[in-house]
């Protein structure tokens, strides 16, 4: 039974499988201290304007996921003023008409803090806007890595780790009185900078106060939810079972079909051919057995989350290997090689930055929309362009006070929007020992052009000048990554 195989052989499936059951473990009231996280701020309420700025005006470039007509909610990536990356879920305007109920529910979820969650950091409730703010995890969803992989499939050891981390997340939530999770699926599991899988906190709240808890295909919906329209802790376990089938098969197989395959011992259809030789009969049998128990029709026959953790812990493989290695994800600690621009920012070499910006000119302004009427072109445009021209001349001559004055007149005219002007005025502020003003301009440049590396680089220098070294490092890393992505895209063309 211990020999390596990729397909579970019939010898694994005798009468003892049908009699086997997951031992039910009483629910815990607490969790180990190691699961708590202390690096996150307390839950808070944001203003709509703050989240609008953080997402560059809810720019299309910052959309990371969106749903269909049944649940028209969009998730954006964003960045707060302190450089913390966030995910912002903007709910349908009619989702939570009662502001008090929305705030109470969000605050309750916001009390949770665990290393297995993409934790909820805050919310916004202004007029008819309802938004949730959570940690941003940069390395895609389980669905992307499992069903749409481009470089390599997820290894068996990593699939087991995903299952355990998810079970631990559910156990923690249950211990804190939040056993209900809405529409648990492979899109709800995200990978952080270290490649560790975490459960999205967004699913701990319904998409609406009285709306449906499931938006996936009916074939994957717990049978009791179809009967009653209510989600229960046992419904969450059922959905966990569908995820175990996903992990085993590498496909999104409907639970009823998976159970038929198990009963018919047609395990070749149930196991991922990419896992050839990576697991033993015993391990495969145990995972299938666990999935089968989770997918039982009767609620009382399903295990609880504590039992899932107990069953999955002994199955873990290569526990000493970091997740980012198993996933083939570049580690967060390894920065891409710094470009000359990045090096200049790291050294806080303002003279070198000035030379780079001067040589860059306005080519990165291409594509920035400026809607001007004919009247503006004829009456106001020339004067506005003269302000920019004078500012550029002063900037080139390193007369930064004059540059600030001229660029300010250009910006205040409001007839054109230019991220490069904000970048140049930002550096002029830095040269004039005005770091806060420089930071404001660098952030405004990013609002106009969300993926512009220059804006992030200037934020890094401004943060460093303000003594905010951690924020400076985050911004420098972001600028480096954005510049590398831009370079890679240019080389592909």
From TrEMBL:
<dbReference type="InterPro" id="IPR001245">
    <property type="entry name" value="Ser-Thr/Tyr_kinase_cat_dom"/>
</dbReference>
<keyword id="KW-0723">Serine/threonine-protein kinase</keyword>
<dbReference type="GO" id="GO:0009742">
    <property type="term" value="P:brassinosteroid mediated signaling pathway"/>
</dbReference>
<dbReference type="Pfam" id="PF25575">
    <property type="entry name" value="TPR_BSK1_C"/>
</dbReference>
<dbReference type="InterPro" id="IPR011009">
    <property type="entry name" value="Kinase-like_dom_sf"/>
</dbReference>
<comment type="similarity">
    <text>Belongs to the protein kinase superfamily. Ser/Thr protein kinase family.</text>
</comment>
<dbReference type="GO" id="GO:0005886">
    <property type="term" value="C:plasma membrane"/>
</dbReference>
<dbReference type="InterPro" id="IPR000719">
    <property type="entry name" value="Prot_kinase_dom"/>
</dbReference>
<keyword id="KW-0808">Transferase</keyword>
<keyword id="KW-1070">Brassinosteroid signaling pathway</keyword>
<keyword id="KW-1003">Cell membrane</keyword>
<keyword id="KW-0547">Nucleotide-binding</keyword>
<protein>
    <recommendedName>
        <fullName>non-specific serine/threonine protein kinase</fullName>
        <ecNumber>2.7.11.1</ecNumber>
    </recommendedName>
</protein>
<keyword id="KW-0449">Lipoprotein</keyword>
<dbReference type="GO" id="GO:0004674">
    <property type="term" value="F:protein serine/threonine kinase activity"/>
</dbReference>
<dbReference type="InterPro" id="IPR058209">
    <property type="entry name" value="TPR_BSK1_C"/>
</dbReference>
<keyword id="KW-0418">Kinase</keyword>
<dbReference type="Pfam" id="PF07714">
    <property type="entry name" value="PK_Tyr_Ser-Thr"/>
</dbReference>
<keyword id="KW-0067">ATP-binding</keyword>
<dbReference type="InterPro" id="IPR045845">
    <property type="entry name" value="BSK"/>
</dbReference>
<dbReference type="InterPro" id="IPR011990">
    <property type="entry name" value="TPR-like_helical_dom_sf"/>
</dbReference>
<feature type="domain" description="Protein kinase">
    <location>
        <begin position="61"/>
        <end position="327"/>
    </location>
</feature>
<dbReference type="GO" id="GO:0005524">
    <property type="term" value="F:ATP binding"/>
</dbReference>
<keyword id="KW-0519">Myristate</keyword>
<keyword id="KW-0472">Membrane</keyword>
């Amino acid at each position: 039974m211990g020999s390596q195989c990729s397909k579970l052989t019939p010898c694994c499936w005798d009468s003892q499988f049908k009699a086997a059951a997951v031992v039910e473990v009483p629910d815990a009231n607490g969790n180990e201290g190691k699961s708590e996280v202390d690096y996150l701020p307390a839950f808070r309420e944001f203003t709509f304007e703050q989240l609008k700025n953080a997402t560059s005006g809810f720019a299309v470039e910052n959309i990371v996921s969106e749903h269909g007509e049944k649940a028209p909610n969009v998730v954006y990536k964003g960045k707060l003023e302190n450089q913390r990356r966030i995910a912002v879920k903007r709910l349908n305007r009619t989702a939570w008409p009662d502001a008090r109920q929305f705030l109470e529910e969000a605050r309750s979820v916001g009390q949770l803090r665990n290393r297995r969650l993409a934790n909820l950091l805050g919310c916004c409730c202004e007029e008819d806007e309802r938004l949730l703010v959570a940690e941003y995890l940069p390395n895609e969803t389980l669905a992307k890595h499992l069903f749409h992989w481009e470089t390599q499939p997820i290894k068996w050891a990593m699939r087991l780790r995903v299952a355990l981390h998810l079970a631990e997340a559910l156990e923690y939530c249950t211990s804190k009185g939040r056993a209900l999770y809405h529409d648990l699926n492979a899109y709800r599991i995200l990978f952080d900078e270290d490649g560790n899988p975490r459960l999205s906190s967004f699913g701990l709240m319904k998409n609406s106060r009285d709306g449906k808890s499931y938006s996936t295909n009916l074939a994957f919906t717990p049978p009791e939810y179809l009967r009653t329209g209510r989600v229960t802790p046992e419904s969450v376990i059922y959905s966990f079972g569908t995820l175990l089938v996903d992990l085993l098969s590498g496909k999104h197989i409907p639970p009823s079909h998976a159970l038929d395959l198990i009963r018919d011992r047609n395990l070749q259809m149930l196991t991922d051919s990419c896992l050839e030789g990576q697991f033993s009969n015993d391990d495969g049998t145990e995972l299938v057995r666990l999935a089968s128990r989770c997918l039982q029709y009767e609620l009382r026959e399903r295990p609880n989350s504590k039992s899932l953790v107990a069953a999955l812990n002994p199955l873990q493989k290569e526990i000493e290997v970091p997740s980012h290695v198993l996933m083939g994800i570049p580690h967060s600690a390894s920065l891409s090689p710094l470009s000359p621009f990045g090096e200049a920012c790291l050294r806080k070499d303002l003279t070198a930055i000035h030379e780079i910006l001067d040589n860059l000119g306005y080519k990165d302004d291409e594509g920035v929309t400026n809607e001007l009427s004919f009247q503006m072109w004829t009456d106001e445009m020339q004067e506005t362009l003269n302000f920019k021209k004078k500012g550029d001349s002063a900037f080139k001559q390193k007369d930064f006070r004059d540059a600030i004055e001229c660029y300010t007149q250009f910006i205040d005219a409001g007839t054109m929007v230019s991220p490069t002007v904000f970048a140049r005025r930002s550096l002029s502020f830095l040269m004039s020992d005005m770091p806060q003003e420089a930071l404001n301009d660098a952030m405004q440049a990013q609002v106009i052009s969300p993926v512009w590396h220059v804006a992030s680089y200037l934020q890094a220098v401004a943060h460093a000048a303000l003594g905010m070294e951690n924020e400076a490092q985050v911004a420098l890393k972001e600028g480096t990554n954005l510049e590398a992505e831009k370079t890679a895209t240019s080389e592909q063309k």
